[in-house]
Specification:
Layout lengths: L4 E4 L6 H9 L13 H7 L6 H8 L3 H5 L15 H14 L7 E3 L7 H7 L4 E6 L2 H9 L16 H22 L4 E5 H6 L1 H12 L36 H4 L2 H17 L13 H27 L2 H5 L9
Parallel strand pairs: 1-2, 1-3, 3-4
Amino acid sequence: MTSPLLVLGVARSGTTLLRVILDRSPGIAIPEESRFVPLLARRHRTPVDPVHFRDDLRRIPELRRWELDPSDVVLEPAPSTASAIAAVFEAYAAKRDKQRWGDKTPMYMRHLPLLERLFPDAQYVHLIRDGRDAAVSFLEMPEGTFTRTWAYPSRPAGFACQWRTEVEAARGLGARVGSARYLEVRYEELVAEPERVVRAICDFAELPFERSMLEYAGSVDVSEKPHHQGLREPPTAGRRDWRRELSPEDARAFEEIAGDLLVELGYELSDPAAPRGGVRAAAALTWYRARIRAWDAAASATQRSPLWRRRHPTLGGLEQ
């Protein structure tokens, strides 16, 4: 099982841009968001039954989008949960004549302990963006981009709870695994100096760098992805500016919850004298985290249930 490179980042932090760039390296294949790792980990314990595992793969729409057939996935006898899941990514990389695989799925910021257990040799690149800019981008995503539920924030203060929780969790992971396996990168630096930052990432991950990695504009199909239209152009700074696009009240509400972390990361506050933290911020964080735990518990119970297969019929093989 090869060592993966996992791109971490809160939603709308530029992880898709970074995935597109890194995927153009000859040394690694990073598909579009997988979303299925927690599902497969919940449904298949070591030793994995290959027949049942492949049956589940036939029900996962991401594989069709990757143009990957379950028959392409090579499983060892009685595979572990980790090796079976890794085999899916390895098959994707093999079809692209690449030796190493990676992943970029922002929802996994809620599942970092699972990633640590499954892939103990993984390297992580954590892309951090000013949470207020990410909030503007997230809250302006078109209706229908994803299924909005009560677990998703609908206001800047709610997004502040998500941003703070997930950034702190990823930085905690970095402290545990060390600098040989964790690299922190700022979105603002990536778009301002893309070659320097991407070279640093490639050096960290021991990937070959080619200038063509930055020449993705015009080669990415975003026809069905209105929230990814920025990929039509080279890396561009200032696509979002919370100073123009957030009201003063919303900026202060975000900073009340996540201002201390913004300062720790070197971002300026709209009102440094405004209260930060306190009982109200603590209550908002506690309520957000309780909702996420409840959502994940419900998802786990549903996905482990025998009814999951009835609700997710097989999609069939790829057309020849």
